[in-house]
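User: Can you fold this complex?
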Amino acid sequence: MKSSNSAKINIIWHRRIGLSVFLLLIFLAISGFALNHSPALKLNKISLSNSWLLSWYGLEKPLIRGFKLDEKWLYENGNNLLYVNKQAVAPCSAPLFSVAESTNILFALCADTLHLLTENGQLLESFSQLDGLPVDARAISSVDNTLYLITDASVLEFNSESLDLKPAAIDPASLNPLTAQLPVPESLEQQLENSGPSISLETVILDLHSGRFFGQFGVLVIDIVGLLICILSITGLLAWINRLRQIKQ
Amino acid sequence: MFNSLYKNLFNNLLSKVVFAGLLTTTLLASPQLSAKGVYQSGPDFVAEVFAPQQPEAGVLWLNKSIRQEAEKILGRKVLGLRVRYHQSAGKTAWILNEIGKEMPITIGVVIDQGKISSVKILAYRESRGGEVRYPAYMAQYQGATLTDRYKLDKSIDGITGATLSVWAVNKVAALALYYHSQVMSQPESTK
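Assistant: Here's the predicted assembly.
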């Protein structure tokens, strides 16, 4: 009689626990499967930049700022890429210091490279610090179709054909470099892909799987679910043993 | 008596294990620490290659057909409409960038009479795999030419842990050979 009562209690609790965790159990199984096969599913290559998700992770989508030159917007997209309007044209270590136009060539000075672009925004070539660009180059300015490179210490004349630099014989006060960035129009910003911070789908699934997505509370819930799964397997085993006993009797 | 013997043996063994551990850690860590860096600037590389001569600077414009072949060699889109090089008496020097794993590797390649004369890593920005820059490894490229399928005609040994960097150097070496062939096939007036 006592044994029959305990078997009933066991079954009741097995059902209750099973009902309470079955949805989470299915989710854990699917997410665990996805994480196990993450490289094959390329989950780490899928970037999510939804503003709600970014704010949940404490990340902010930066305001993209750039320069307007002859109806063209030149800007660094927050992921070290130089854009001309909607087109990514070259790698560009932030910040984009300055832009200028001279002899039908657009110039964009990034932190470590000076890019030369056609009027259409196609990359002609790049002049990096390894090629001789001064480390302290801070701005560029065009006067009478000559490009001047302004460093912390001096002003240099840049030859866009030979990529040579020589000390400039010009009064630095006469230069008017474009260095003040303006916010990129919203219409342009909205059409940008892969701009600003993003989180990989793998990270999100991993955080959901471990409960970290919901902070300490989520971790505690997953811990409890783990404990309940252990109890579920024990009550399941006991139920099976009880059933075997009943059959024997 | 036995106790002290065991104690000595144990201490001796422990000190050897600790020493071996420290040595292994140092050896494993040293290439990683020294992997990243700029080893030579472009102008210095060119000056060294052509010394004591003064090479001529040239520009190779990437027209549609050159671009297509270059993209086949690299297996990716080629950035830029023109490539700069230096030349003197049938010898050309190229400074090209190619991504290893995540960061670009700047590689200097010298081609003499259609064969690779030397390859040098000028800047390495990855945290691992910097072993490719060692002269003993780079020496493998000497004398390599381009096959009809735009591959190197020599087999280049791989390096464990630097596979992607090795592939990047192979691709750049093949690309420099291809660019060289294009420069050499151009009429003198257009160079």
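Residues 2-35 of chain B form the longest helix (34 residues). Residues 109 and 173 of chain B are 6 Å apart (CA to CA).
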